[in-house]
Write a structure and sequence with these properties.
By secondary structure, the protein is an alpha/beta fold. The protein has 16 helices and twelve strands.
């Protein structure tokens, strides 16, 4: 189903000229085509869980897999790597080390992922699809389980539990969450209540600003038709230079995607902006591979501690937008560049939007699929901007660099602890004294 040839190296090209493509099929069709419909999935899953074979395999891989670093010199192999090299008589004496920049590389513990997939297939999943991705190499192949109707999994809980409490820090926008999880699972709408408390950090410890225009007066518009233009990238460079000159400590700049972060970095390097920023603060970029993450974060923290600060270029929805705290000096300013709308042409997203349009219909005059698309963006924004302010005594500036953040419907979807302190700055000039004063008062 994913291509490949038995006995061949999965990393070898077996389908020359083929492009990576993704298709969605029904779960029943997947079970039939893969010929696993007659397997006892429950017994297989139980064996893996009881024997803990997934954890044992992960420990083995971590112990014996050589850690590779991409350099210009020949890599030094040791342990199992040396043994395998010694018995491979056909191996060339010198090999070029090619960096692996595939952000969709398979997990190190693939067996655990397989068990989780089998668990999804064995449950009463309701509306679901299998997402198959294949390309010229088998290693590019991926199998994912897409649950279209989460309410199906929630019905028994809603029906049998006296009370159900769902708590989280980034659940806004809340309406879609309430309607598609609780109400769709059979809960009486009158029973569903929403409570939101204020942030533990006092209002004077945060400075959320929407910047409608840049230093030259050009409107900051990072929508699809403008974000790649030279004028837009130049203006962003001027914004970052000004911010770096007045913000102490660490600055985390979030971009909508890895591709756009790469485009901006390349442009700013060519125009000399990165060199000007590095004269003030060292620059770090979010890696695509998890193995490099700890080192980048450690180097970033060291640079913040031992110098005038550092700048981290990160990606919304990436490894640094959730689960990592940039508290205190590590994140005195979060800059959100543009709005991270997901890829509208993604097969999974299109299937989800079509499902919502058929089952939910319209919400406040908009198709439910479109509402879901917009909510994905704002949930990602809310997740990212909360990385900096992590405790009662913490403080940070939050800068939304795109005029679209000034729209009332967008502001209403931000967390209350941000929206009630949010200031919209039409001209860039007056924003600089506000930011400088904010940090001066914290000294």
């Amino acid at each position: 189903m994913l291509g490949g040839i038995p006995g061949k190296d999965p990393a070898e090209v077996t389908n020359q000229g083929a492009k990576e493509e993704t298709c969605l099929i029904e779960v029943a069709d997947f079970l039939s085509e893969s010929q696993i419909y007659n397997l006892s999935l429950f017994r297989l899953i139980k064996y893996c869980n009881v024997s803990q074979i997934c954890h044992k395999l992960k420990g083995f891989v971590e112990k014996y897999q050589p850690s590779a670093s991409v350099t210009n010199s020949k890599p030094v192999k040791s342990g199992v790597g040396t043994f395998l090299s010694s018995i491979n008589k056909t191996e060339k004496k010198e090999e070029a080390v090619v960096p692996d920049n595939n952000e969709n590389r398979p997990p190190s513990n693939s067996l655990q992922s397989l068990v989780e997939l089998l668990s999804s297939l064995s449950m009463n999943h309701g509306e679901a699809r299998m997402v198959l991705t294949k390309g010229p190499k088998l290693t590019a192949g991926r199998i994912r389980f897409l649950l279209l109707d989460p309410a199906n999994q929630f019905q028994q809980i809603v029906r049998e539990a006296h009370s159900v409490v769902v708590a989280g820090g980034t659940m806004r926008p809340i309406a879609e969450f309430r309607d598609q999880l609780f109400v769709a699972a059979g809960a009486d709408p009158s029973r569903v209540t929403h409570f939101s408390c204020d942030h533990v950090v006092p209002g004077e410890n945060m400075l959320p600003l929407v910047m409608n225009s840049g230093p030259s007066g050009a409107r900051l518009d990072f929508s699809f038709q403008f974000r790649d233009k030279k004028e837009t990238l130049d203006e962003l460079g001027r914004v970052l230079i000004n911010i770096v000159n007045i913000v102490p400590g660490g600055i985390v700049v979030f971009f909508p995607s890895y591709d756009y972060e790469k485009l901006v970095s390349k442009h700013l390097e060519a125009s000399g902006v990165l060199a000007r920023i590095e004269a003030k603060k060292k620059i770090f970029r979010e890696p695509k591979t998890s193995s490099e993450l700890d080192k980048v974060l450690g180097d970033f923290a060291t640079a913040v501690r031992l110098s005038t600060g550092a700048v981290l270029l990160a990606v919304v929805g990436g490894k640094m937008s959730e689960g990592i705290n940039f508290s205190d000096n590590l994140g005195r300013c979060v800059v959100m560049v543009g709005m991270p709308y997901p890829n509208l042409y993604s097969p999974e997203l299109k299937e989800k939007m079509n499902f919502l349009n058929k089952t939910v219909g319209s919400v406040d005059g908009k198709q439910a699929g479109q509402v879901h698309y917009e909510n994905l963006c704002m949930k990602a924004v809310n997740q990212s901007v909360g990385r900096a302010i992590r405790h009662k005594g913490d403080y940070a500036a939050i800068l939304f660099v795109d005029h679209r953040y000034s729209r009332p419907n967008i502001i209403s979807q931000l967390p209350g602890w941000i929206s009630k302190h949010l200031r919209v700055v039409d001209k860039f000039g007056p924003a600089i004294p506000q930011i400088r004063k904010f940090f001066k008062e914290k000294e």
